[in-house]
Amino acid sequence: MDQTLISGYAPTPIAARMENHGSTMLKAVLQTGQDLYARAGSMVAYEGFVQYEPNPPALRRAAAQWLTGEGAPLMKASGDGLLYLADYGADIVCVNLNNEALSVNGTNLLAFDAHLDFGVERVKGLAKLAGQGLWNVSLKGTGWVAITSRGAPVVVDCASKGEDETYVDPDALVAWSTNLKLKGKRTVKMGALVGRGSGEAFQIAFSGQGFVVVQPSEDSTDRLRVRG
Length: 228
Prior knowledge:
This protein has helices at 57-66, 127-130, 190-193; strands at 18-20, 26-30, 36-39, 43-54, 74-85, 91-104, 109-113, 117-122, 132-149, 154-157, 166-168, 173-177, 181-188, 200-207, 211-214, 225-227. The chain is mostly beta strands. The strands form two sheets. Strands 1, 2, 3, 4, 5, 6, 7, 8, 9, 10, 12, 15 and 16 form a 13-stranded antiparallel beta sheet that branches. Strands 11-14-13 form a three-stranded antiparallel beta sheet, with no helix packed on it. The longest helix is centred in the first third of the chain and has 10 residues, at 57-66. The chain is globular and about 60 Å long. Residues 67-72, 192-199 and 222-228 have low confidence and may be disordered. It holds the Pfam family AIM24.
């Protein structure tokens, strides 16, 4: 076989705990004592000695709220080796938290360091205006997080906007820095102007120091919601 034809797809040298291999695959380094939580079923390959534990005790309570009716969405990976993860060809973004907090849509969370503090939390201040609650996974501490996006995302640095706000459709929202200020806003839904909608649309306005990750998709089935 002519190896030169496939050499460009070989893994690159390890540079970080989590990094991309291409845009749609995650390469994570596992070492003894540095466990990883990952979306169940996301493993596509691994090297070395890797063990998996579905529905570990630390996740059971959170998993019950994570995806109603779907069962436990995460597994714990431990050992010493390389782990490759993917989510049906979705783009992957790696975030390195430095004593910071991140709020992530549960369906966009691919993997995170097991030592990070996490929980399922309701996004405060939006339920009354949105007519329904928004629930996200909160991750806090110092460590790595990998999130997915349905298509190449845009990451908006809200600090660079000064006093201007960044408005995001909740159905396209992937994650944001939790120190950002946010509020809801109603506008006329464009679909209503051509007979496809019923009136109003809801956006979330972000401002302050931090960033927002937005995917090029408005699939409402991707949002983790409950009725208010």
